[in-house]
Specification:
The protein has two helices and five strands, in the order ββαβαββ. With 121 residues, it is of the alpha+beta class.
């Protein structure tokens, strides 16, 4: 049986979007409560009944959240213009080596705005 497992994380951060035109409100510094959903997919191990140990996902995310939480995203290498599209790809690059079966990363910056990335660069 193949199943997908989702695990959600939250962090607070500020950013600016310097590539936007002058006068665009998101070009100004502002912040969000971001939600990151990490999704892995794989064969359910019938002997224990799960696809993945949630702790493995948490362990992979912990150092990334420590970098991002209550930070200024533009100061982080690879996030100089931190749209949610670029943030989702940044998470993918960081997590893929440690999370076999990584299927997608979804980043929400508001309750109504999100981006899902599936590893296609």
């Amino acid at each position: 049986m193949i199943a997908r497992l989702n695990k959600d994380f939250h962090f607070e951060a500020a950013h600016t979007l310097p590539s936007l035109p002058e006068g665009h409100k998101c070009r100004q510094m502002h912040g969000h409560t971001f939600r990151v959903r990490v999704t892995v997919e794989g064969e359910v191990d019938e002997s224990i009944g799960w696809v993945y140990d949630h702790k493995c996902i948490s362990d992979a995310m912990k150092p990334l959240l420590e970098i991002l939480d209550h930070g200024y995203l533009n100061d982080i290498e690879g996030l100089e213009s931190p749209t949610i599209e670029r943030l989702a790809a940044w998470f993918w690059r960081k997590l893929e080596p440690d999370l076999p079966g990584l299927a997608e990363i979804t980043v929400d910056e508001t309750p109504t705005s999100s981006c899902t990335f599936r590893g296609q660069f």
